[in-house]
Amino acid sequence: MPNHRYHIHVICVAHDQPMVLDGLAVFFQNIAFLTYDIATSSTQASVYSRQCIDDCDCTIVVIGDSYGSAEKNSVSQLHLSYLSARTKIKPMLVLIKSLGKSKKASRQLRDFTRLVEQQVYDVYYYDDKTDIPKLLIDVHTKMVKKHNLVASWTRMQKSSNADKAQKLSGLSSEKNTAANNIDQPFKLSELVEIRYSAQAYEDGNLSDIKMTIKLSWQQILQAIALISATFSSYSLQVCINRLIASHAEKDIKQQMPNVHAVSRYQVFHSDLNHLQQFLVTANCIQLTASSLKTSQELWRLTFYAKKLLESSQIENVPVLSK
User: Fold this and answer.
1) Cβ contacts of residue 27 below 8 Å, gap of 6+?
2) Backbone dihedral region of 264: left (phi > 0), alpha (psi from -120 to 50 degrees) or beta?
3) From CA 28, how far away is CA 2, in angstroms rounded?
4) Distance of alpha carbon 229 from alpha carbon 88, whole angstroms
5) Which pLDDT value is given to residue 72?
6) Are 221 and 308 in contact (CB under 8 A)?
7) Among residues 198, 149, 196, which one has the least CA distance to residue 321?
8) I need a surface site. Which of 187, 224, 227, 243 has the fewest CB within 10 A?
9) Burial level of 121, CB count in 10 A (0-12/13-18/19+)?
10) Whole-number pLDDT of residue 12
């Protein structure tokens, strides 16, 4: 077995299409290292899938008979993984099962399939009579040629296998910022560092400045709760910019005493993405049902997040800057 292989993450509903999933495993045995979405509907499952997608060279989406488990007004792991791969701009090919006339797909599955067909070019169809190994030969050839894929995954020595498994299972511990520590218990009192830029007017001159502020998760969730029932990623950005502006001017004036005005607060885009990912992983925000019918992601606070805010007794959480 070669040491260098592709890492392909298979986006799927676990156990839904054994003929295809088994076919992928056999075909790619000596070509690629495969990871799959797992069956459990949990925060850890979502973290695992997202980290696999971050690490992989390309993705294969398998859409069969099932949309997967989804809570009311939410979406399944299949849909979440698809959106994650699209956001990461990962090379993607899609295998869609052609349903016979006797089979009726759920509304969610039909809407999701239609969305994928509109957004992805490399779509292949199959049914129960399809020669899957033959189909995969064609799929693999076109995939490698189109995306110029290079086998980047290297087999680890035994001493390093545990590290790889730990990374994929989302159990690695790192510095507590918006980008990391996403698997630790969620506390509203914890502070998160957010980088931002702004424009400061001093003695008639305009200066571009970059600073860091610390906000509590309680402050962030309270601000989000004031946006609207549903919100886009852009609305979240505007919300965080306003939250920063409401706390940061005093810190800027301490650093620049002659400043008479500060404007255009902008959270760093990477920090905003990390913050949003944390909120998803912590079960504080989730996609709305309306996201099924459009390429735009619309979010809402979860019931869990609302209960956290209602039950919280934390007051006057300090805001620190540096």
Assistant:
1) 133, 136, 137, 140
2) left
3) 12
4) 27
5) 55
6) yes
7) 196
8) 187
9) exposed
10) 93
